[in-house]
Design brief:
This protein has 262 residues and is an alpha/beta fold. It contains 9 helices and 5 strands, in the order E-H-H-E-H-E-H-H-H-H-E-H-E-H. It has one domain: Rossmann fold (3-Layer(aba) Sandwich). It starts with a strand and ends with a helix.
Length: 262
């Protein structure tokens, strides 16, 4: 679960796993395929911890967002142009990447040129219920246990925000089924080209599908093409991260590289 940011002149990557972590592998694969992705910078943002009966959550929302905002403005301060910055993130980091871009749009700050989210945790509680929902049919996906017990939701919301309010918050749960104020949330994304990658076998697939539709609705028919949807048929969570899932993973990496270069 990580958040990364890349720039054409200077590749910026935010990740909690370190440069050799398996969770950063898809960025290394993009670098190998792209003519414009050359370097990466990593930020160790504060990690949220799960609430237990003996310990309150540490670093709940918006701690990680504040760290990412600091890093974004650090790059701007160094002289890098926003249009040459690419924000990327996978899993919970994809959620964070979306939140950062949304927050920048509310501040009136120049947005990054591209946003790429891989298997973003858009629905932290698998709230899209029913016998045909992805949370029911894709129980073999290795990420399923992270969502079902509300592990991520409880860690991110902390104790100050109730479970009900967290589930209904577009800041935390942008692909959830019971969120409030979803309409118009992504209107500011018209300044950023977005790509969403989702595996068809992911437990959280439904939330990513709804996230895509909400972005498309806010962009409008004339700007809809600015948000690209890439679905890996029968692929699990974060499938481009490992060569095990090639050639589908390799194909996704090539499409990401082309998306960035265009």
């Amino acid at each position: 679960m990580c958040f990364r940011k890349l720039t054409k002149a200077f590749r910026l990557k935010f990740d909690t796993g370190g440069p050799d972590s398996i969770s950063t592998n898809w960025v290394h694969r993009i670098r190998a395929k792209s003519s414009v992705v050359d370097r990466a910078f990593m930020l160790d943002y504060r990690l949220a911890s799960v609430v237990t009966h003996t310990q309150a959550s540490r670093n709940p929302f918006p701690a990680a967002l504040i760290d990412c905002l600091s890093a974004y403005f650090y790059l701007i301060g160094l002289g890098f142009s926003p249009e040459n910055i690419i924000v990327t993130g996978d899993s919970a980091g994809g959620n964070l990447a979306l939140t950062l871009t949304r927050h920048l749009s509310t501040m009136g700050v120049a947005l990054p040129g591209h946003l790429v989210v891989l298997s973003p945790a858009a629905d932290l509680t698998l709230s899209h219920n029913g016998p045909e929902s992805s949370g029911v049919r894709n129980t073999t996906d290795f990420s399923h246990p992270w969502f079902a017990p509300d592990i991520m939701l409880d860690a991110i919301r902390g104790l100050a925000l109730s479970r009900e309010d967290a589930i209904a918050s577009m800041w935390l749960n942008p692909g959830g089924s019971v969120v409030r104020g979803a309409t118009g949330w992504f209107s500011g994304f018209k300044a950023t080209k977005t790509m969403i990658l989702a595996g068809g076998a992911e437990a959280s697939f439904d939330g990513m599908w709804v996230l895509r539709d909400r972005i498309w609705a806010d962009l409008g028919e004339n700007e809809k093409e600015r948000c690209v949807w890439l679905e890996g048929k029968d692929m699990p969570h974060n499938w481009p991260n490992s060569p095990v899932f090639d050639p589908q993973g390799e194909d996704a990496i090539k499409k990401i590289a082309k998306f960035i270069e265009n």
